[in-house]
Design goal:
The complex is a heterodimer of chains A (112) and B (117). Chain A has 112 residues and is an all-beta fold. Helix content of chain A is 0%, strand content 54%. In chain B, strands 2, 5, 6, 10, 11 and 12 form a six-stranded mixed β-sheet that branches. In chain B, strands 3-9-8-7 form a four-stranded antiparallel β-sheet, with no helix packed on it. Chain B starts with a strand and ends with a strand. Classes of the chains: A mainly beta (112), B mainly beta (117). The interface between A and B is medium-sized, with 28 and 23 residues.
């Protein structure tokens, strides 16, 4: 069974640009969660989608948004990028959200 | 709000030494508790979990017991190997009183473990 796939693995952007990250969950998993990992703040929850609906949201500004498609694939968008958005963005999937989450290898976003 | 506190690293041990990484939590509801491990350049892998008080999670020689009275979930291993070198994260998922999802994990800051041969 293929794991959680995140693309791209690495991304370099400049301030003010926007970016879209993609996550394909494990087949059959309907819950997709996104996390931001930075050296200073550690791992922080961004949002969770289940059956195309946002079910939970962390404490991030509105520049961070996401969506989920009918095949459970999810995208995360960050607009008006700031230097502080440089981070490893991790996606995790689970069956219903009530099972342990399985993580992808992440997308490392660098803002210049 | 809910939170997880784990011992700061780095922790450096010799091969075959005993490992303990302390983790305590604060939660308003009935949390499930997890340990995840992250190897360099990779995402997180679930190491073990416990869903209710007194449950013991175990995997690959690692163990942790859910202690509600001390709000703790300490990770232990009797004999570490060089291949155990990684960053370990304690996490909780609190469904509160409403049976909500576990889709939002709250993590500790992570503990970096280095095992020397």
């Amino acid at each position: 069974k293929a794991g959680v796939t995140q693309t791209p693995r690495y991304l370099i952007k400049t301030r003010g640009q926007q970016v879209t990250l993609s996550c394909s969950p494990i087949s059959g998993h309907r819950s997709v969660s996104w996390y931001q990992q930075t050296p200073g703040q550690g791992l922080q929850f961004l949002f969770e989608y289940f059956s195309e609906t946002q079910r939970n949201k962390g404490n991030f500004p509105g520049r961070f948004s996401g969506r989920q498609f009918s095949n459970s694939r999810s995208e995360m968008n960050v607009s008006t990028l700031e230097l502080g958005d440089s981070a490893l963005y991790l996606c995790a999937s689970s069956d219903t959200g009530n099972q342990p989450q399985h993580f992808g290898d992440g997308t490392r976003l660098s803002i210049l | 709000g809910d939170s997880v506190t784990q011992m700061e690293g780095p922790v450096t041990l010799s091969e075959e030494a005993f490992l303990t990484i302390n983790c305590t939590y604060t939660a308003t509801g009935y949390p499930s508790l997890f340990w995840y491990v992250q190897y360099p350049g990779e995402g997180l892998q679930l190491l073990l979990k416990a869903t209710k008080a007194d449950d013991k999670g175990s995997n690959k020689g690692f163990e942790a017991t859910y202690r509600k009275e001390t709000t703790s979930f300490h990770l232990e291993k009797g004999s570490v190997q060089v291949s155990d070198s990684a960053v370990y994260f304690c996490a909780l998922s609190d469904r509160g009183n409403y049976g909500g999802s576990q889709g939002n994990l709250i993590f500790g800051k992570g503990t970096k473990l280095s095992v020397k041969p």
